[in-house]
Amino acid sequence: MKNVGKRTISLLVAVMVSLPFMGCNVARVTLNTTLTPESVAFIVPGKTTLTDVVTRLGAPDTITDADSGIVATYRFLDMKYSRVNFGWLAKPWTPVDPDLIFSRTGLGVDEFQVFCSPNWVVVQQGFQRSVTRPPFHPYPF
Amino acid sequence: MKVGHCVLGFVMAALLFQGCAFSRGTVGDDVKAEIVAAIQKGTTTKTEVVNLLGAPDRLLQLNGRDVFHYYRYDAKAGSLLLILLNFTRLSVKSDDVFIIVNRDGIVEEIISSKRTDNLSFRFWPFGE
Questions:
Q1: Considering the entire predicted model, what is its pTM?
Q2: Structure confidence by residue, pLDDT tens digits, A38-56
Q3: Cα(B11)–Cα(B32) distance, rounded to whole angstroms?
Q4: Which of A49, A81, B58, B102 is the most buried (most CB within 10 A)?
């Protein structure tokens, strides 16, 4: 009798633990490596050259013309998506297929721009948005 | 007996990988490192660059200089579909080569990197 009680409690705990994960989808899309202020801290305007930047960060995604020289742009994306369908909780007890969906997507798009003089020396650098990393929770409110 | 082992191995592998999905997509041709290495600053001409790498994907103007941009994108997606709980991760990286040609038609600068070499299939969406 004692064993049956223990088993029931274990089963109940397992069900309680797995319930929040029912009908969950978690997805992530990354484009290139996300750059942080720490990863570009080596750049010293007036001293660092574009060659030094390329050696550390790789080739930029675009190089464009500007009045003062050249702009090299590194683009990156860290998109996070999560979705939970609470309708799954009712599925075993209803003949219909109910849905109660909470989902949230964080795009996390940013770019790092390096302004260089015509002789390839970095003049200025900066992030376009300085976005904080999007969260993974599906609560949309 | 050997056939039995093979079948058993196949069944075991199928069971182990069930619910897994692998997808891949690429855009552009692979830019070979040895071809890029053959291009020399100050000597290689615009015509030689086009002969080696073909026509550029994008042609830009930079303070009177021509910039030939060659790129390739590689995307790898891994999904773990556990019916109640699904994980998906898509990673996209690019290889870019910029060749800057001066007004005399001679290569002035080469900027290249190959990011797709360390691109792997990933399933776990959390962390880095």
A1: 0.79
A2: 999 999 999 999 989 998 9
A3: 39
A4: A81
